[in-house]
Amino acid sequence: MTGAGEHYGAGMSADGSIRDRVGDIPVPEFTSTPATTAPPLSQARVAIVTTAGLRASGDVQLWQPTDGSFTVLPGDARDVQLSHFSPNFDRTGFAADLNVVYPLDRLAEMAASGEIGSVAPRHLSFMGAQFDATFSTMLLDSGPAAAKLLRDDGVDVVLLTPV
């Protein structure tokens, strides 16, 4: 038995159970692969896209399974909370240092030293641990909306912090 009262079988962890349920999800196939060439990093505007399920502190809306939406975080927002619903997500690193999942301080340092051109005015947070029912929403709705927002902000490079 787990702490939540769910039984995963002899010797099976919660992580193993999740892997068993999502391991056979088909991967979408695309007819073409759009590509672009980014400027040198020293000239690039960089945004963070995380799947840590972050929200601005005080935002009490919790992520729900199959929620394919995203949250827009201001470029200077360091007062964020973790709203990740997965019991398999280890929150230790986040609790010790926000930069583990949302490396704003590192990007600011890189911009100050000239390693990157600038930090984007907004960053995005999705909920990781999605089920296959969510992929079409992300592919057809929230994904293109997120891409448009990043394009509108002049973002050249995205730093993806998958959780």
Describe this structure in words.
The protein is of the alpha/beta class and 163 residues long. The protein has one domain (43-161). 28% of the residues lie in helices and 18% in strands. The chain is built from 4 helices and 7 strands. It has helices at 14-22, 92-96, 104-113, 132-152, and strands at 45-50, 54-56, 70-74, 80-82, 118-119, 122-126, 157-161. The strands form 2 sheets. Strands 1, 3, 5, 6 and 7 form a 5-stranded mixed beta sheet that branches. It has a two-stranded antiparallel sheet with strand order 2-4. The model is unreliable at 1-9 (pLDDT under 50).
Overall mean confidence score, pLDDT: 79
Flag low-confidence runs. 1-9
Termini separation? 25 Å
Beta-strand segment tally: 7
Largest sheet: 5 strands, mixed
- Helix and strand composition category: alpha/beta
- Estimate what percentage of residues fall within beta strands: 15-25%
Secondary structure: helix percent = 25-40%
Helix/strand order: HEEEEHHEEHE
Number of domains: 1
Radius of gyration: 18 Å
The geometry reads as globular
Number of helices: 4
Q: Which terms would index this structure?
A:
five-stranded mixed β-sheet, two-stranded antiparallel sheet, 28% helix, disordered N terminus
Brief summary:
By secondary structure, the chain is an alpha/beta fold. It contains 4 helices and 7 strands.
List the helices and strands and how they pair.
Layout: H1 14-22, E1 45-50, E2 54-56, E3 70-74, E4 80-82, H2 92-96, H3 104-113, E5 118-119, E6 122-126, H4 132-152, E7 157-161
Parallel strand pairs: 1-5, 1-6, 1-7
Antiparallel strand pairs: 2-4, 3-6
